Amino acid sequence: MERTRTPVxxxxxxxxxxTGDDAPAGGxxxxxxxxxxxxxxxxxxxxxxxxxxxxxxxxxxxxxGLSPRGRVWSYTxxxxxxxxxxxxxxxxxxxxxxxxxxxxxxxxxxxxxxxxPGVTVADLAVGMEVEVVGGVLNEDPATATTxxxxxxxxxxxxE
Length: 159
Prior knowledge:
Helix content: under 10%
Strand order of the largest sheet: 6-7-8-10-9
Strand content: 35-45%
Shape: globular
Number of strands: 10
Distance between the termini: 26 Å
Largest sheet: 5 strands, mixed, barrel
Number of helices: 1
């Protein structure tokens, strides 16, 4: 059975094979919004109003691709299964994962995400350059769905 690739959150990223789309110029990107009145950039995206309290107002929010690279700001690992209300099969083996907070190059904002599989806290250092790439969060055999997301990968490391 062919799997359906579905973004975990629609409209938060685009590009490469993680979403099934053709990669735009520049490859996989997180998508945010930029206010035309004050130039503030938001991720997650904001479609209703500018969240900048110093914005003069009257601007429009336009979708914008965020920096494909940034620097590690902080990191940690998830070694335990999250408690309820997180839905998880208690009989399935738990695989630890690595979380990284990345300060995006141009925007200066910090975005949280998982690292690519195989990258652990031992492989990371504050200030290390990383890039955002498409990844898989989960595969559901019952519905033949592959849930896609973003991951961060140290620059120069190939999967």
